[in-house]
From TrEMBL:
Keywords: Amino-acid biosynthesis, Aromatic amino acid biosynthesis, Isomerase, Tryptophan biosynthesis. SUPFAM superfamilies: Ribulose-phoshate binding barrel. The lineage of its organism: Bacteria, Pseudomonadati, Pseudomonadota, Betaproteobacteria, Burkholderiales. Pathway: Amino-acid biosynthesis; L-tryptophan biosynthesis; L-tryptophan from chorismate: step 3/5. Residues 27-229 form the N-(5'phosphoribosyl) anthranilate isomerase (PRAI) domain. This is N-(5'-phosphoribosyl)anthranilate isomerase. It comes from Paraburkholderia solitsugae. GO terms for molecular function: phosphoribosylanthranilate isomerase activity. Pfam families: PRAI. It comes from the Bacteria. It is an enzyme of class 5 (isomerase). The keyword Amino-acid biosynthesis applies. Coiled coil: none annotated.
Amino acid sequence: MKSTDNLAAEANARAQQHAAPHRTRIKLCGLSKPEDVSLAIDLGADAIGLVFYPPSPRSVSVAQAVELVHDVPPFVSVVGLFVNATPDWIREVVCNVGLTLLQFHGDETAEQCESLAGVAGLPWLRALRVAADTQPADLVKSALNYSAASGLLFDTHVEGYGGGGKVFDWSLIPAELARRAVLSGGLNAQNVSDAIHRVRPYAVDVSSGIEVPGARGVKDHARMAAFVRAVRAADAE
């Protein structure tokens, strides 16, 4: 007769055999045309990102954003990216555009993020820019500081605020933060599989890696499709 411990071990082994593989969530960011959003939805993206930072070549107006989100179906998140935004700007966008999540990508403190999210009445992500001299302990400290965030987006520290197409050292992300991690920074169809295998992030975020080379803000539909295929292939391995 098998012992209770043996029966429990067998049950656990069977559960692992039949467990669904991890599905890395995908956010396609910096979309600015209805056909880009339509394709992202058809490809099965979990989230689309709209940039509300006028200096960015990927920025959209409130009127554009209203058109872009008009046909977004349920369960596809619409993420609004803001950089050092005022409460009035947050309020104007949220009152007109059906956002489901805020992304703070500037120099906002934890207190400012919580205050701005309170204005919107929405959950939020905090982008953490990873520089060459960043240490894992620095990221752990930041994660604790931004503990109220729904997730942490790890991006490469570049001049300006993201979208530079530069990769940082993924090994800097501590394993204990992977479950909260949205990995960004220079991802594309060629390197995202390696990134997923090494970091095991909850989600990946791409913008410049799905654009026409040399045309910032102009999405390449073939690259969008290739990126999604590469993520799904990595999950299946």
